[in-house]
Amino acid sequence: MSDLKDAGKFAELLELTLRLGASDATVISTSEIRIEDELARLCVEPQCENYGASANCPPHVSGPEGFRELLKVYEQAVVYKLEVPSPVLFSPVERLEVFGLLQEISASVELAAVKIGQTRSKGFAGSCCKILFCSDHPRCRVLHEGGKCRNPQLARPSMSGFGINVSKLMQSAGWSLQRAGGKTIDTAVGTLCGLILIG
C-alpha cells in the first residue's frame, strides 16, 4: 500500500473525520489492532439482543479469525473517537443517534478513502445497523430476501463481532478509554470508537 502520510492524504481523511463529528482521530499501524476471540464470544453468550439481526453482525460476519486474515493485507488504519455525555449513552433515543453517527463516520471516511484511490478501505463501527437504520423493517433485506442493503452508504460491521479490543485500540491511538457513568452523573462522559482500514 502507498504511504498516505507522504501523499498528504491521511490529513484529508482525518480532517473529514473531525468535520463529521469525531472528538479526535489519528492513524495507527494495523499491527497495533488486538483481536480477542473471547470478546467476540460475548455476542453469543450472554447473547446480544441483536445477534443474527443483520448481515453486519454475528453469526453473519467472519469473526476474529476472518479479521486476522483481513489485517494481513492492510498496514494502516484511521481510528477515531466520540466522547459522549453519560446521560446520552443511557438514553434509549439519543444513544441510537450517537451510534448512528458512529456508523456514518466510518462509512463516510471509508468512501472518501476509496475516492482517493484506496479502493480496499473498510470501515467498522459499533452497534447493530438493523436497529439504527432499518428498525421500521421487520427483517434485514440481505439476510431474508437475498437483496441489497437498504443503507449501503451508512451501515458498517460492528467491531464487537470481530473481537476488536477497543480499549487497546484507544491506547494505540494515545487516548484513555472513558466508561460512561450512571444516569445521574451529568458531567461524566463515555468514549465510543470507530475504525477504518485503509488500503
Description:
The structure is a single chain. The chain is of the alpha+beta class and 199 residues long. The chain has helices spanning 4-7, 9-19, 37-41, 63-71, 86-89, 92-115, 129-133, 141-144, 166-173, and strands spanning 24-29, 76-85, 122-124, 189-198. The protein has a four-stranded antiparallel beta sheet with strand order 1-2-4-3, sandwiched between helices. Helix 2 runs antiparallel to helix 6. It starts with a helix and ends with a strand. The relative contact order is 0.24.
Largest sheet data: 4 strands, antiparallel
Estimate percent helicity: 25-40%
List the total number of helices. Answer: 9
Strand order in space, largest sheet? 1-2-4-3
Element order: H for helix, E for strand: HHEHHEHHEHHHE
Query: How far is the N terminus from the C terminus?
Result: 6 Å
What attributes does this structure have?
single chain, 199 residues, alpha+beta, 4-stranded antiparallel sheet, 4 strands
Write a compact overview of the structure shown:
This protein has 199 residues and is α+β, with helices and mostly antiparallel strands.
What topology does this entry show?
Elements: H1 4-7, H2 9-19, E1 24-29, H3 37-41, H4 63-71, E2 76-85, H5 86-89, H6 92-115, E3 122-124, H7 129-133, H8 141-144, H9 166-173, E4 189-198
Antiparallel strand pairs: 1-2, 2-4, 3-4
Helix pairs in contact: 2-6
